[in-house]
Structures are given as structure tokens and as C-alpha cells.
Amino acid sequence: MSIQEPLSEMECWRVRDVLENYFNALDAKDFPRLMSCFADDGSSVDHAGTQFEQSTQSAPAIVRELQDRVAKFKFSNHTTSNIAVSKVSGGAESITFAVAHLHVGEEIIVRGIRYNDYLEKRNAGWVIVRRRHIPLWQSSCAAIPVVPAWKS
Fold first, then answer.
1. Domain of 139?
2. What is the domain-level CATH number for residue 55?
3. Among 95, 90, 83, CA closest to 131
4. Cβ proximity of 19 and 116 under 8 Å
5. pTM of the model as a whole
6. Is residue 48 part of a domain?
7. Cα–Cα distances in Å, from 139 out to 47, 70, 148?
8. Residue 142: pLDDT band by 50, 70, 90 thresholds?
9. 88 to each of 1, 4, 120, how far by Cα in Å?
10. Is residue 121 part of a domain?
11. Tens digit of pLDDT for each residue in 70-80?
């Protein structure tokens, strides 16, 4: 996937809004809102290129899978590093680099992720039709209790 022709500024912001909304809904565990980010007939390949690669078809199945995963996290925080969006025949493609902080048990996992998405503008607006989730790197550290900064 390579970025070609840019969308109009307004449409680019609408696509970016879907991508940011996805991260916020995932971290807030707001599954109805997460569902709204995907086309009903959407598909997702998670952990692409690893031994854990998994394909999921349909928005309800994608959200169920994500719901099962985030249930294992005490907390998560997905932060967008950068997004590039381009116009393609029938829709838009985006490449998103993000960092996920995942609180699992007594550990914080920090993971760099690339998302390759194909989106289309449908009745309710832009939605993710095809997603490819590619983990790039990962590290971890011990989780410690939250203490106000002025007490550290």
C-alpha cells in the first residue's frame, strides 16, 4: 500500500476521525461505537505476518474479537503517531502508525503497530472496509501503582 492522491481536506479529516474514533472506542471499551467504525461486511487481518495472524469477517465478528481481547487489559491507551490518507478508486486508503500501551496483569506492554486500512463512504459516513493490523515492535515493563507526580 502506498499513498497516492490526497483526499479533499474535509474528507481527509472525516477519515481521520473514523481512525481516531476507533482508538478512543477501543480504549473506552465502547463497543457500539467501535462497531460504527466498521462496514457491516468489513474484514480484518490482525497480527499480520506473525504466527498469531487471524482473519475476521463482518463488523459484529470483528468487534466480538476485539471485545474478547480488551477484556484481558486492565487499561489500554492507543496513541496515533501519524496517519496518511489518500483517495483510491471507490474510497480511501490510510496508513496509520500507532503506539499501544496495554496494562496486562502486573505488566505494561508497549507495542508499535501499523494499520493499513481501506475505507469507503457509505450511508452513515466513512467506515473501515478492510483492515490489516501489523505489529512492528514490542517491549514491556512492570506496572506500578499510580502516585501523583508531586508525590514521586
1. 9-151
2. 3.10.450.50
3. 95
4. no
5. 0.91
6. yes
7. 16, 18, 25
8. very high
9. 11, 8, 10
10. yes
11. 999 999 999 99
